[in-house]
Amino acid sequence: MTSSRIANVGLVDHSRVVKFSFDGRTYKGFEGDTLASALLANDQMLMGRSFKYHRPRGPVTAGPSEPNALVTIGKDARTEPNTRATVAELYSGLVARSQNAWPSLNFDIGSINGALSPMLGAGFYYKTFMWPAAFWEKVYEPVIRRAAGLGKAVMEADPDRYEKSWAHCDLLVVGSGPAGLMAALTAGRAGLRVILAEQDFRLGGSLLSETAMIGGVSAPDFAAATIAELADMPNVTIMPRTTVFGWYDDMVFGAVEKVQKHLAVPSADKPVERLWRIAAGRAILASGAEERPLVFGGNDRPGIMTADATRTYLNRYGVATGRKVAVFTNGGSGYRTAADLSARGVNIAAIIDSRAASADFAPYGVRVIRSGSIVDTKGGKRLSGIMTNRFGYDEMIDCDALAMSGGWSPIVHLMCQRGARPVWSDEAQAFLVPDVGPLFAAAGSAAGHATVSECLRDGAVKAHAAVEAVGRLVGHVNTPEVEGEYDPSFAPLWYVPGARSKAFVDFQNDVHVDDLALATREGFGHVEHAKRYTTSGMATDQGKLGNVNAVALLAGMRGVSPAEVGTTTYRPFYTPVSFGALAGTARAEQSRPIRTSPLHGWAKKNGATFLESGLWYRSAYFVQGEEKTWRESVDREVLNVRQNAGLCDVSTLGKIEIFGRDAAEFLNRVYSNAFLKLPVGKARYGLMLREDGIVFDDGTTSRLSENHYVLTTTTAYAAEVMAHLEFASQTFWPDLDVCFVSTSDQWAQMSLAGPKSRAILQKLVEDDLSDASFPFLAAREVQLKGGLIARLFRISFSGELAYELAVPAGYGEAVADAIMEAGRGEGICAYGVEALDVLRIEKGHVTHSELDGRTTADDVGLSKMMSKNKPDFIGKRLSTRYGLTAADRLQMVGLKPVELDKPLKAGAALLREGVEPSMTAGQGFVSSACFSPHVGQWIGLAMLKSGRERIGEKILVWDAVRSSEFLAEVCAPVFVDPENLNLHV
Amino acid sequence: MSIPFTHRHILEDRMSGYEPSPNANHLTVLRRPVIFSALAHAGHEASVAEALSLVENIVVRSVSPSDWLLVSQNAEAGAIAASLGAVPGLSFAEQSDGQVLMAVSGPDVRKILAKCVAVDLHADAFAEGESAPMMICRVAGNLARTGTDTFEILVPRSYAGYVFDELREAGREYAMTRGFGE
Questions:
Q1: Which Pfam families match (chain B) (predicted)?
Q2: Which of A59-73, A483-497, A574-588, B13-27 has the lowest mean pLDDT?
């Protein structure tokens, strides 16, 4: 045993044993452990293999910045790769596995990469795998990915729930160490709405591993008492296990709460993770500081970790990381750790201090090597000794763990995510937070303070500012006395010269000093270039430990200050966030809102197959009897509508009610055709243009009374048309008396089409529906038998005698059922949007397949819809420009393949007969196509250059996607009833 | 031939198997409220708002400075239409079938709704009697505070099933029951 638990030390509950497994072996830890602390207590220092060289690695931190101890936690569908063992809360039944090692963690074949390392330097992919180019995607990349990597995601669907929530507060405090607690206490006592967020499962931050006394009690006791007071305040919300990962516009912070990640079997009633969007009036960053590793030869062996981590494992978890621990430091932190270890009976092998002199006290009897350095280490899966060097004199010292301290860096990430760069301080030898304005302030060691008492005071001071800013009185908060502080000063030491083996800068990506030197030599010395070239600072830890060393090393190599090198760009997320949390409830069917038609139930019981149309699910076709293909159903529906009658759900069309004295004038200006004289009780087809003269949308508008119209839009453009009308009313013509409201959801609307539709409908309607009293384009309220008031429109998209009946949505299904029942004797059928599409193509009616944002009214044969008499309407001026009136524009025509069995497909290109098929020879394209049971072959609508002059011409239909090529005849775009006789029966 | 058409609520299919006795946190779907859109013509905004506050048996939900939703649990549509018709500068359209009204209540109602709306529902920010249009479960709707721990939601009918499903999930953590109510 070299690392072990010390009885009754720390904040873990020694009476509550927690069993877990790692790589198939069962271990025991205590409640309050992390996976890393529990493994260390069991002398399992080796926790992973490195990314590129597969070197054995143990934890180097005891917190969220961990680059090495990444494991896969969970099993089956609940498997989560790349979890940091240093923050993973231990629970009973936890199953963890090591990553990136094969066949096992102890014996990993991939470690041969270490021997090949001269060939695997920075940029080796770019240089080595250049030729042949096709090999990159198919051979090189897959092989490299297999050899180098982290954990693997599982392919099973995640069985757990995730959700998102909003929170609002006057003050958000990020971090619950000394500064965060005092800030929350100060603001909480003053009555502010405070949120205190802490990424750890236990609040207290650095106080949990602090040995100094605060206000006469131990630091953890001080933290517990403060947290208890905060928990009693109704205006304070404490959020443990919550990592604030991003700072966004308008003081909105993103945070992720691990609600049930510490439970073996999560409750199905709660999410496992919850994504918070916290809208804060002000915020205080109390995220603390990170201790820096030292860059020396062999600095990555398991057992080498930061002095702070060593101390945290000791004081918080009661775990000694070794039996004989060496310390390598450039400041007071190493001495503090040595003192704590020594007090717990752990042997200190030596303190190697890079400084020539300091006022720090070593524990009694401990040897201090001043002006010393470490140039190499030895050991396999665990450190066994260090090679020290002092003025050229090498000395091997046996030890089984090393605590290193290279000084401290404030954790500035959140403040730097919106463009502000951290500011280099020569005095602090660190990058400090930038000034991002009064709403977001850093406090405590995040603000560059080092001692506990400074941090406590600074938390209170920063909170005072927030309290005063919202006009509240600041209550009195005493800053307690702190006894037993240490001297936190340190002397910069970025690189320990004389390394005899690799000196790692970025542990996670296996980037060592030579890689940075290579990058600098080859012209990639800019910090952003060096990052990409060497991968320093990439992957899951984003260089939280190594970046500052990399910057300082680049600065040293270039002979400039770290200020000049600067940092790479900080971006959310601070630590990795699962995709599940980002998706929240928006997954599978719930991934976006679903709109349900009032006739959905009717369609379903009539056998509908649905298709997605925007947010709607529309009935596409209705399978009956033995029908095996959709074509059989659609052909039957089409024939039946033209022969008997059919009922179709058109509830999804947009409906806008228009009111006002000037409604007629308003419509006259937004439509290209005339609307001023539309009589009450009549419907009219209308075409709207955009300002640029291109067709925007079409639909019918009916005048229900003198100053009341109802306008319909296509399903897809309902919201756009509403916005267009509002915009025109509010900005172009505020003088016109007109107002609008959408009633799309109020009405169930159904189209009853076919020669027998009148006879069927008359059975349900009290009013006389004869052609004389309810002619084509009549539109008015009618009374259904039983008294229900409905809106009836005699309009047709199919070209047949047809009606659209609108009833209040809740009655839709009952009315549709009654129509089907009434029409049974007449052979009525339900038909869907596929049949509707065939019916309209047969009649040459356009949809957004033709009105695709490029076509003018004339292009689609609707030039009559462009009023010559109106002084103005939206789109009139620009519709006359040359480009829109040129004779060689694409014009809508009909198409019929010459050979009857050729299927025409929308999207196919049109070419002159006999030319070599190519896109440059294109003459147009097929916009809509269908099989017409009336014509007995596939037909289509197409946009063809000068198309109307070319009726009768044979052209080549070339479909490169589906590899087909055949001749078709250009014809008029009407295939059924060209005289419109059926409409007026 | 007289046909008694049955009126169906869009959430009827979702209610089968709902808990018979409501828990502290409960979602009530109001079965047949009477709802109107009211629109003030330009220049009449203030007088229409004033007149609406005097119409009996309705509560007024604000949609925009010239646009309201009126909700009634105890008046006939015809009677309300008659009152509205007498207000100068006002146009209106019935939306009883176009909007679905749901009430969420209980001690955890704010925590439940925090998962659905981005608006701060603290009483200092959104007091009793206030209403506002907002995204509710990714759908444009209207939210009103009708009591300390009671809020009412209006969403377009076609979206109601989706919003109901999202609300049900949001309330699961707090054992929120749901059912029709008057």
A1: SoxG
A2: B13-27
Contact B115 A815 (CB under 8 A): no
**Which residue intervals of B32-133 are DSSP H helices?**
45-54, 77-85, 109-113
Mutate one of A193, A585, A610 to test the B interface: name it (highest B CB count within 10 A): A585
> A162-289+411-471 and A293-406+491-501: same fold?
yes
Which fold does the domain B12-31+97-181 belong to in CATH? Gyrase A; domain 2 (3.30.1360)
CB pairs A-B closer than 8 Å: 146
pLDDT reported for residue A129 = 62
pLDDT attached to residue A350: 98
Considering only the beta carbons, identify the residue of A595, A660, A809 that sits closest to B98: A809
B66: nearest Cα among B30, B95, B40? B40
pLDDT one-digit tens code per residue, A417-452: 999 999 999 999 999 999 999 999 999 999 999 999
Q: Mean pLDDT of all residues in chain B?
A: 95
Fold of the domain spanning A162-289+411-471: FAD/NAD(P)-binding domain (3.50.50)
* Residue in B9, B10, B99 closest to A596 by CB: B10
Distance CA A458, CA A144 (A): 49
Min CA distance, A606 vs chain B (Å)? 17
If DSSP codes are grouped into helix, strand and coil, which group holds residue A522? coil
E strands, A106-265, are 162-174, 194-197, 213-214, 217-218, 236-239, 242-248, 252-258
C-alpha angle A273/A277/A282, rounded to 5°?
135
Q: Domain B34-94 has what CATH class?
A: alpha beta
Contact A721, A658 (CB under 8 A): no
Distances (CA, A) of A896 to A687, A938, A949, A968, B15: 28, 7, 16, 5, 52
- The CATH superfamily holding the domain A654-742 is Aminomethyltransferase beta-barrel domains (3.30.70.1400)
Question: pLDDT, tens digit, for every residue of B79-121?
Answer: 999 999 999 999 999 999 999 999 999 999 999 999 999 999 9
Nearest to A597 among B66, B117, B158 (CB): B158
**Are A269 and B172 an interchain contact pair (Cβ–Cβ within 8 Å)?**
yes
All structural domains of chain A with their residue ranges: 1-154, 162-289+411-471, 293-406+491-501, 503-564, 606-652+746-839, 654-742, 886-985
Looking at the domain that runs over A1-154, which CATH code has it been given?
3.10.20.440
CA angle A781, A784, A785 (to 5 degrees): 150
Here the ipTM equals 0.97
φ, ψ for residue B15 (rounded to 5)? -90, -15
Instruction: Give the gap in angstroms from C-alpha A188 to the nearest C-alpha of chain B.
Output: 16
Amino acid, single-letter form, for residue A932: S
Query: pLDDT per residue over A185-234, tens digit each?
Result: 999 999 999 999 999 999 999 999 999 999 999 999 999 999 999 999 99
Beta B34-40 vs A954-959: how paired, if at all? unpaired
Among A237, A273, A272, A270, CA closest to A255? A273
pLDDT grade for A146, boundaries at 50, 70 and 90: low
For residue B54, give how far its alpha carbon lies from the nearest alpha carbon of chain A (Å): 23
Asked whether the beta carbons of A162 and A272 are under 8 A apart, the reply is: yes
Asked if A828 and A645 count as a contact pair (C-beta separation under 8 A), the reply is yes
**Span between the terminal Cα atoms of chain B, in Å:** 32
User: CATH class for domain A886-985?
Assistant: mainly beta
Cβ of B95 within 8 Å of Cβ of A786? The answer is no
